User: What shape does this take?
Amino acid sequence: MGGPTTDPNPTGPQARIYPIRGESSDEPPARYCASAPVRIQAWRMDRSRILLIAACVLLAVFAYDGVVRLLLIGLVRLPKLPAELTLLTSILALFSLTHAWYSIGGRPTLVFFSLSAAIAWAFEEVGVATGLVFGAYHYTDYLGPSSGTCRT
Assistant: This one.
């Protein structure tokens, strides 16, 4: 009667029991998995590794076509990427998004990208239409397709 008692439902981080994927958390699961945090952590590391590799590949492609190929133009003839400026801009934007997703996470990246794209587009529209923001200027068709009324 006076001896130590053991709690059948211990608490603490080691004692948590997680239902296996596919089983409802409202009812007691038939099987348990005590290593769920380890699985989640491994998945996050795999996702981080994939994002980091994707960012490095995008940066390497941008550096090749935007810097290396131009520096070696008189020495070696290297192949050009198709749709030069549009593709380079897209690659740089994808690199920025991938790097931000890796660094700060998905939701802050999407919020920041959405806000900065909307604000930059609004400034460009006002600047081209009125000349207030950056002075009088206009765009040519060299930059490719446009959104809005920026082309004059």
